[in-house]
Amino acid sequence: MIFDIPIQAFLGQLLIGLINGSFYAMLSLGLAIIFGLLNVINFAHGAQYMVGAFVGYLLLTWFGIGYWPALLLAPLVVGLAGMLVERLALSRLYDLDHLYGLLFTFGLALVLEGAFRYWFGASGKPYATPEALSGGYNLGFMFLPKYRGWVVVASLIVCIGTWLLIEKTRLGAYLRAAKENPTLVRAFGINVPLLLTLTYGLGAGLAGFAGILAAPIYQVSPLMGTNLIIVVFAVVVVGGMGSILGAIITGYMLGILEGLTKVFYPEASNIVIFVIMAIILLVRPAGLMGREA
Amino acid sequence: MKRSAIAMAVLAAATLPAGAAEISDGKVKIGILNDQSGVYADFGGKWSVEAAKMAAEDFGGKVLGAPIEIIDADHQNKPDIASNIARKWYDTEQVDSIMELTTSSVALAVRNISEQKEKIDLVTGAATTELTGEQCSPYGFHWAYDTHALAVGTGGALVSQGGDTWYFLTADYAFGYSLEDQTSDFVKQKGGEVLGSVRHPLGTNDFSSFLLQAQASGAEVVGLANAGLDTANAIKQAAEFGIVASGQRLAALLFTLSEVHGLGLEAAQGLTLTESFYWNRDEASREFGKRFYERTGRMPNMVHAGTYSGVLQYLKAIEKAGTDATKPVAQVMHEMPVDDFFARGAKVGANGRLISDVYLMEVKTPEESKEPWDYYKVLATVPGAEAYIDPAQSGCDLAKP
């Protein structure tokens, strides 16, 4: 017993926290990349996550394409759509104040959510768990659905993969250099606008991936992203705006913290992250892993 | 010029329908005010507007010779927006009555205005018993359901079916508490026991923590005292964590056919819930269901069917009263029994409550479902007198003995 809570419940909530943390990590990772490299506060991230889930749903109902191909196709579709948006609109806002990018993406989110609500209704659509991942394991202290286990694995792979891509590859080096000094990088004959477009596509694609991953767990509904985006922003702020590793680590950490709050004081579970955010902003304004500007 | 103007006036007077003299402004205008874009857009929404239009058409499109007009607006679940629309409708657009009114806060706000302006309001979409309790109005009516009926249906009747230990997942706001409290009362009344409850924030995405706690409690019934997407997510994840498969029963306290459809039978199977209407109940309800389906592509839930019934009853009352003036129409509505496919031989209490039967339903498994929208098994019928608060006990001044 820890503070009157049975150890089973404690372990169970720890694991659940890790699962939720996986979503936070994946979503905040995309946000951090877009902010870190493009200086755009992407408020459409929640909507892109929602679109990812809907793409999965539509692939299944319109074309009979199942979960596994959708896992690849949904992020691709969302990523391509993201690139189109970046090319046509966002790229024109880079020279202006941050606020314009924020307002544009916020507006985009509202339009997307409104349109999906118009087409598919507010109560959402069902998406079944893939056959191979239904059922679960009895761990003794809790029942772990197989799918939830898969979510943790998939998100770890994606997070580590993305981090490696940006920190360890040549492409990643170009991206980071383009952020530091775009003029100089351009002088080397590298197509910087294309790099930025790809970056936004990558960020949006990550949101789409999280969306299709979430589809079998949550009801696929137009509002699913709205509920999540604010939390994810808090995660990014705690981790340090633009810090990729910070976003990943903080995502998992806050997920676990939130899970534990659900045992000790459930009513506070949706504000605990914001309390942490407030404390971090007071003590370390640049975030846990951010650099002082 | 002057002569032709007089001629026009005479002509207009001559072509005016005979009975229209008793109808104010020459037409009967009913406003459907509800949530058309938010979380309750499928629960009521534009489908309720369609149901109201069907009632007007089935009545013949005219009452006492005057045309019937149905208008609608989206209140976005905000009482202030709803109040503004209601005032505008009553003051400048000659609306005779406002109906549907999903969401309790909105229904109570509009109730106030309607009573002040001496207009009829008929609520089908909101749950609170206040509407026929302390906030009752001589011109106010409540159709379809309320929190009391849901609690009696799911709480009381389910205990009789053998579910006598309960654990609640409760939305952390007034609506959640009142659902939990009322249901607990009936569970205990029938000899059941409440083992505990956990309060989750409104708009929770992930219910797994709470479901684990419910599972650990060992209760036979897990009661979901929440609404909308919260309930849908809780049910879907309960299926994932094997709550129903491992023998616990899941009871949603406010959930209708529309939400079951949204969730799909795979996730919703085995769920128990209470509704005052099911399209596949008898010949008359099936006939209405089919016609509704042809227009909207979906089957009606109790809010849609209730709205049809409310509009129809209002029109019948105008015809019987021979006028659309509020007081005589309200009086007829209190006296005249309601007899249509929605409510058979039902009465309206002095507090404005339509007292009709409600049904405890179980959602079928995908194998049991024979056709699209064939979703429910009726487990029990709860007579209206048992489902609703006795008007004399309701706290409504109009119904005091």
Architecture overview:
The complex is a heterodimer of chains A (293) and B (401). With 293 residues, chain A is an all-alpha fold. Chain A has one domain (7-223). In chain A, 71% of the residues lie in helices and 2% in strands. Chain A has helices spanning 7-38, 45-63, 67-88, 98-120, 146-168, 170-180, 182-187, 192-214, 224-239, 244-264, 272-283; strands at residues 136-138, 143-145. A two-stranded antiparallel ribbon of chain A has the order 1-2. In chain A, a hairpin with a 4-residue loop joins strand 1 and strand 2 (143-145). In chain A, helix 3 runs antiparallel to helix 8 and helix 9 (224-239) packs parallel to helix 11. Chain B folds into two domains: 24-145 and 283-356, 3-Layer(aba) Sandwich (Rossmann fold); 152-275 and 358-387, 3-Layer(aba) Sandwich (Rossmann fold). In chain B, the strands form four sheets. In chain B, strands 2-3-1-4-5-6 form a six-stranded mixed sheet, sandwiched between helices. In chain B, strands 8-7-9-10 form a four-stranded parallel sheet, sandwiched between helices. In chain B, strand 12 and strand 13 form a beta hairpin. In chain B, helix 8 packs across helix 9. Mean pLDDT of chain B is 91; it is low at 13-20.
Task: Give a concise summary.
Chain A is mostly helical. Chain A is built from 11 helices and 2 strands, in the order H-H-H-H-E-E-H-H-H-H-H-H-H. The N and C termini of chain A lie far apart (45 Å).
Strand fraction of chain A equals under 5%
**Can you tell me the residue ranges of chain A where pLDDT is under 50 for at least 5 consecutive residues?**
none
- Class of the largest domain in chain B in CATH? Alpha Beta
User: Between the first and last Cα atoms of chain A, what is the distance in angstroms?
Assistant: 45 Å
